[in-house]
Amino acid sequence: MILITSIMTSLNQFDLNMDNLILESTEDNLDDSVAASEHEKSVSLKKELDEQDRLRRTWEEIKNKNEGTASLMSLPDEVKFVVKVRNRHLKDANAVYDCNAWDDVEWDSELEEQARNAVEKNSAYLMEVDKRYNLERNADSNWDKFYSIHQNKFFRDRNWLFIEFPELKSPFGSSVSEEESMTGITEKRKSESYPGENSGFKVLEIGCGVGNTVFPFLAANNHPETYVYCCDFSSTAVDIIKGHEKFQPTRCTPFVLDITSENPITPFPKGSLDVITAIFVISAISPDKYNQVIRNLLEFLKPGGIILFRDYGRYDMAQLRFKDGRCISENFYMRGDGTRVYFFLEDEVEKLFLKQGFTKERIIVDKRLQVNRSRQLKMYRVWIQAKFVKPS
Count of CB atoms within 10 A of residue 115's CB? Predict the structure, then answer.
């Protein structure tokens, strides 16, 4: 019992809970809070116990590979994939309900046809022009309403992001003692012409919401060389971050930004950032503004800087669930709360970034089958994940 308690304490410490990794990515992509709530209710006690048992075994494997110690941000890539359980492939159709998720799922022609038919049906009639215009005009207020209602209770923290994107690991390291951190940060902030100037690893999250990536990142990395900027279209979301009990202005600058503007005002100069994350955010913007958005991101980065991208893929479950009358334009929809979402193709994402001067390092279509075991439901998820680099 003592051993089990010790292992589970370590698991919590390093955020290696598989349910969180799976459910976070699901909840980030559901089109309304009702669906997220239904998914939560479907999690049974038996599944929790099964997952805890598997986590104990996984953690022992990780500790053995790392001589008894491990840190989420410092795990080697092959161990990260063990943690993510990326080798969970469905080989026996009769076993589909044995686990709550399967990776790298190949769609057969029948499934492709069903998805295509569903999209053709829910996009047969486009939304009225006046309604589309009002959605665009009220985009900021719709997000303000969303965060006013949900505050920081809607999305789970995105701990999975550091496994999907090891590039978020600072070249200067992540963890130092509390004394070293406080002393170093105080020294770094002296004589700065802008916040974060003297730190050597600068990260920006666009579409930061209420900090579900920012706060886990700051908790995992207290090195003085790391500084985080985060922006959102919603002033309400930014205010929630600033009022959070873990907010540290010496390590993080939240600000309101319309990333689609031609001359965006930022707290940092152009060409100063090392990493930008764009996680389920570009899809919320009108497609006719994508070129300007990506031009802005290119200008923010220093030469050699990188964009980490993850967003909806074409025929994801969320796209198939839309009802008639929600389609704004091709593959672009209105959610029930008035926010919007676009569903990308792989080559579409690649062309958008290459056109503005980025080079591609990698791009994948992440197809996953998530299963509601208690209700015997299958949920096919499709995401596009990529890394693009600003040429040196």
Answer: 19
Question: In this predicted structure, which of 123-137, 212-226, 252-266, 340-354 has the lowest mean pLDDT?
Answer: 123-137
Rounded CA gap, 306 and 277, in Å? 9
Q: Who's near 303: CB < 8 A, 6+ residues apart? A: 271, 390, 391, 392
* Most confident stretch, 58-67, 138-147, 198-207: 198-207
Q: How far apart are CA 27 and CA 348, in angstroms?
A: 24
Query: How far is Cα 332 from Cα 344, in angstroms, rounded to an integer?
Result: 9
Span 299-342, pLDDT tens digits: 999 999 999 999 999 999 999 999 888 999 999 998 877 778 99
- Report angle CA 127, 353, 86 to the nearest 5 degrees: 90
Let me know: does 276 contact 282? Beta carbons within 8 Å: no
Give me the amino acid identity at 142. N
The proportion of the chain whose per-residue pLDDT surpasses 90, expressed as a percent, equals 42
- Residues paired with residue 340 on neighbouring β-strands, in sequence order: 334
Position 79 pLDDT exceeds 60: no
Q: How far apart are CA 350 and CA 299, in angstroms?
A: 18
DSSP assigned state of 361? E
109: left (phi over 0), alpha (psi -120 to 50) or beta: alpha
